[in-house]
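INFO worker-7 received task bundle
INFO bundle size: 2
INFO processing item 0
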Amino acid sequence: MKTKYLSIIMILVLVASVALYNTQTSKNYLPDMKEMAGKGTGMNLISGHIYAVTKNGQVIGYFDLQSAIGYAGPVDVIVFVDKDGLVKNVKIVRQIETPSFFNRVIAKGFVKQFIDKKANSPFELGQDLDAITNATYTSRAIAQAVSKASHNIAVTQLKMEVPKTVGFNMPLQDYLVLVLLLGVFIVQKLKWSKLRYLTLLAGFLLIGFWQKSLLSLGDFSSVLAGNISWFNPPFWIILLIGVLFLILITGHNLYCFWLCPYGALSELLAVLGKFGRLNYKPCKESVKRFSSLRLLLAWGALVFAFLMNNPSISSYEIFAPLFAWEGTSAQWLLLPIMLFACVFIFRFWCHFFCPVGGILDYLVKCRRSWVKWLKNILRKNKLDQPKTIKQLNQSSAAQSGQEQA
């Protein structure tokens, strides 16, 4: 009973932190625009976030503020287009992307590609812009925000024609992950457990090596904050929805033991330890005892991130350095320690520290509790139904007796 009340309190605290994050007032970016325009210039609001910039009484250009969804959430960008229709300045004024990936985009000079381009340019990765390796989502979000602002100015102020917006496009990797999820469901349902190693290998290649998009705590924080794009959603959204759907229909956490790339690597290291007779597999009681630790760490990281108004900092997994070669100093330090521990203790990180595993296992527990509750309700209704009919018959017989009397 105490555990139940504690869970309710933790959920309420998390909901309150998310609500506080969503009620934060938006920043006034006019000072940023004035700084970008320089001294001796004036600003006149035209409509929305479009400002005309004047100097000596003459319009010299226009500012616009637009936003697009990156990997972790919105990226707000201010764009200045001169009167000749050229992009002259771009400033990212707000973002909550993973710091290592965002810093990589800036360090590689991605923003400089926009300077002196026509305001009606496509601004498409692979067409007139070069994406930054291992930071595609962040690169695309910046490009989309610049495109929105530039095209808005081009159409409304400069009367320029802009390219048509590309419709819904589902890339190959999204289809492949859906096929993989379906395959896992079928294999698990038919109890072909030996094929689990094949699905782990497929997950390692597709999710880890190719897409570098393992499920992370940052993904859950983005969903809770509403910082996701349902139009052309990123790969991790497709994966997360698929994993949650499998939990709903099977009552099992199939991601961790059938798909997770890090889990696959952990089991490979455990095989090496087994050959050397160094491996220890934790008993179920130990895993159960520490499962609450994983959930507590995840809860604490989420609440802290929302209170700090930056959901992306909630992630503390060690996946990024392993697959994307990007990460914090702490992640680089923890990675070899956790990998070395996997040789001796089966799935050491997974069983005792992984926040994603903790959340998915908790959702499995909730799903099973709900199913059990529903079955009890249906069973109770079936048991009560004959009694109700019997009572109705008795009542009817009593009424007949009264009429005869």
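INFO item 0 finished
INFO processing item 1
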Amino acid sequence: MGRREQDAESRARAEAAFQGVLARHGAAGLAPRGRGFGSAALKIDGKIFASLASGDRLLLKLPAPRVDALIAEGIGERFSTGTGRPKHEWVTVAPAHAARWVGLSDEARAFAAAKAEA
């Protein structure tokens, strides 16, 4: 299987796993297919807490210590908006860990809700 086919397969697996995240948060089939950051994101009070990023990675907003723990466990990678601009409360999780996506999205939703109430 060539690189292109592997990329397409990875994106398809990620889309299927993300549908589980959408269903968990009452948005199954509702994610728009627009372009740009946040175009297919789950939000609370207009603030993103989960999205599909780079085509096949789950992007989550979590407390910085939780992001650090996921990175230390080898589950996540810190999200960056550019060279030298890491976001301390954002992590991406590869499709290899898709079995954890729903649970992690629950954590992200709770974190976003608490921030919205503050």
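INFO item 1 finished
INFO post-check item 1: Helices lie at 3-24, 64-72, 101-117.
INFO post-check item 1: The longest strand covers residues 86-93.
INFO worker-7 idle
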